[in-house]
UniProtKB/TrEMBL annotation:
Species classification: Eukaryota, Metazoa, Chordata, Craniata, Vertebrata
SUPFAM superfamilies hit by this protein: Cadherin-like
Pfam families attached to this UniProt entry: Cadherin (PF00028)
InterPro entries found in the cross-reference section: Cadherin, Cadherin-like_dom, Cadherin-like_sf, Cadherin_CS
Keywords: Calcium, Membrane, Repeat
The protein's name in its UniProt record: Cadherin domain-containing protein
Domain annotation Cadherin: ranges: 20-90, 91-197, 207-317, 318-425, 435-531, 531-663
Source species of the chain: Ameca splendens
Intracellular or extracellular location(s): Membrane
Amino acid sequence: MYRVSVCAAIPPPKQACGGNAKLRYQITSGNTGGVFDVEPEVGAIFIAQPLDYEQNKRYKLHVLASDGKWEDYTTVTVNVVNKNDEAPVFTVNEYYGSVTEELDGSPVFVLQVTASDPDKDADQEALRYSLHGQGAESEFIIDEVTGKIYAQRTLDREERAVWRFVVLATDEGGEGLTGFTDVIINVWDINDNAPIFPCPLSCHGDVSENSVIGTSVMEMTATDLDDSAVGQNAVLSYRIVGILDVTNSKQGGVPAFSEMFSINPTTGTITVGLGGLDREQIESYLLIVEARDGGGMTGTGTATIQVKDVNDHAPRFIDHSCQARISENAEPNAEVLELAAEDRDTGENAQLTFSVVAGDQEQKFYMVSHKQEQHGVLRLKKRLDYERHSEQKFNLTLKVEDLDFSSFLHCMVEVEDYNDHAPVFIPHFLSLAPLPEDVSVGTSVARLVASDSDSGQNRDITYSLSEDSDTEGLFTIDQSGVLSVARPLDREKTAQHQLVVIATDHGIPALTGSATVQLPLLDVNDNGPEFEAAYSPVVFENVAGPQVVRLNQTSTLLRAMDRDSPENGLPFHFAVPPEYRYSNDFYLQDNLNGSATLTALRTFDRERQKEFLLPIVMSDSGHPAKTVTSTLTVTIGDQNDHAHVAGEKHISINSHRGRMPTTVLGKVYAPDPDDWDNKTYVFEGHMPSYFILNKRTGFLIIKENTPPSTYQFQVRVSDGIWPDAISTVTVLVRELRDEAIYNSASLRLA
C-alpha cells in the first residue's frame, strides 16, 4: 500500500477552537478506479488498490477539507513510477521452422522469433534472446539481438529429422525478467539415400513347378532412409532387370527367359509371369531386382528362387534291355544283377521301389529297393537246379514305381551249369625215353589227353605246365596236349625233368587235373674245362727267380673241372698260346695228370708292372674234344722299398647359412710309390677341433656346421720303416650365399 501525505498540499484553515476546529478530508474527483483513499480525519492519502503503470501513469486528485461550515479544495498530482513487473512475451507460443538437409554455405537462416516487453515505456531494444536444448550452439545458433536462428552445420535428416529448442527472451539487456517459447525445426529431406534391400547376400523364395501365372512367390521389399511422409524421395518402384539360371552354381549363372517372373512395381511382390515352370529344366533362378525411389536413385538386390518339385515324371529304367546269368550253385540272397532307374523328379517324388511282377511262378527271385539311390538289386530267393529244364532260363518282368507312376522292363536270366567235375588224365604218370640235351627247339616229346564229365564251357580244357616243374620255361604244351621243347636244354643244369602237365577246365571256379611226365637227358660234350677254383696267385717283387707260383694258400697246382659227364671230362691238358711259350716271365708245365705247375722265371718290380694276364689253354677228353682258354691273373706283391714324402693338400668346401653336414674330405696326401704299406696318421702339433682323422686309413672328416674360415694343420705319416713325413692340409670353408644357390645350375657327367 502506498501512503501519500497531503497536509502540506492542503492550505490549513484559520485556527478555530473547540469543535469548530475538527476537519474532515475527502477525495472528490480524479480517483480513477478508486486506487487512492484519504484518512478523513488526518488527511493522509494512501493507495487503496494496486497501481498499474501500464494503465494510468498520472492521477490528479481533487481533495476537499471541511470543518462542517467552511471547506477548501486542493489538487494533488500523483505520478506513478513504472516498476519492471512484466516478463517479455513472444508473439506466438510455438514457432515452427524448417531447413533442408545437406545444405552447404553455413550458417543458413532458419527462422526468426520475436518478443516484446509489456512494461510501459520499456526499452524493446534491450531484449536478449538465447537458445537452449540439444544442438544449441553446435548445430544451431541464435542472434541474441534479432532473434534470428541459423543452422551452422550441414544436417542429415536420416540421423535426426526434428530439432526442439526453448528460446528465452530476457529484458533489461539480459538482466531482467525472462519469457520463453518453444521452437520446432523440421529438417527437410533431399534424395540422398538409395533404396536398400534387407537381405545381405540374396533373398530366398520358392515356388512349385507348373504354378499358374500370378502365383505369389515372395516379397522383395527395399527400404529407403529418406522421408516417406514428404515428397517422393522414399516412394519406391520395383522392376526385374535380369533373370539367370543358377541350377549349376559352379558354372555361374546363364541368362534365362526374362519374363518367367514378374514383380509388382509398387509392392515388390514377385509372382509367376509365365506358365511352364519346370524344375527338371531349371531348378534355381537368380533374379536381379531394381528398386528406384522418386528422386531417381536406385538400388539392386538378388532373389534366389528355388523351383519345388511336383511329381510329374514317371520313373524309367536306364537300360532298355536286361540279361543276366547265375550259377546253379548260387546261395539264396545272392545278387543276380543291379538295375538303375531315373526319375526327373526329386525328393520323395524320386524315391523308387522295384519289384518282380511276372515270369517267376515259383518265386525264385525277389528285388531289394534302394529308394534314395534309385537302384534295385535282383536277388536269388531259392536255390536253382540246372538239371530242371524249367529252371535253365527265366523271362522276368520287373517294375519300378514312384508315388504315382511306374514302368516295366523285361529281363532274361539264364542259369549256368555249376562246374563240379575236374579234368582227368589217363594215365596220370608217363615215363619217356632219354632225350639228347642238344635236341632242337620245337621237337615234340609226347601227347597227353584229359577228359571232363561236365558240359558246355565246364568241359572245355586248357593245357599248361606247372611253373614249379618247369621254372625256366624249357618246355611248352599246346591246346591239343602236345608237349614240345621250347628252349635249349642243358643236362649240366638238369639231368632229368619231372614235368607236371595241368588240365584246367573253363568252369567258374575252374577245376584242374594233372599228370607227371618223366624225361631224362643224354649228355653232349658242350662244356670245356674251367679252373677248379678262383685262383689269385701273388708273386712278390724283389724275389729272385725261378720260383714256383703258389696258386692259392694251399696248393701250387693248377687244376681244372668239366661240367659234362665223366666220359667228356678227364684227363685234361694244359698249355699256353704259342706266343707265350718262350716268355721270360712265366713257364707253364702240364703234369699230364689233370694238373699243371706255373713257375716265375725272374725278379719283378711292382712299381713297373702290378699284374700279368696269362691265357691258359685247357682241353678235355670228349669226342670231339672241347678246348677253352681262360685267363689267369698273377699279381706282383708290393714290398716297402720306397720312402714316403711329405705332401700338401688344399680342400675347399661350402657352407650355407652356417649349416653343413659331416663330410669325408679325402685322404691325407703323402706321396709313396709303394701302395701296400700299412701307414698310420696322427695330427702333428695343434689338434683341430672341427676335424676327425682316421688313424689307419688317413681319411679326414670335417664335422657338422663347422664355421666358415681357413683351417691349416699338419699330419704325421708313419709306416714303421722309413722316416716319418709331415703332410700339410689346408681346408677353406666358404659361406655360400643365397644368390649363388638361386643362380646355380647342375651338370651331370656320365
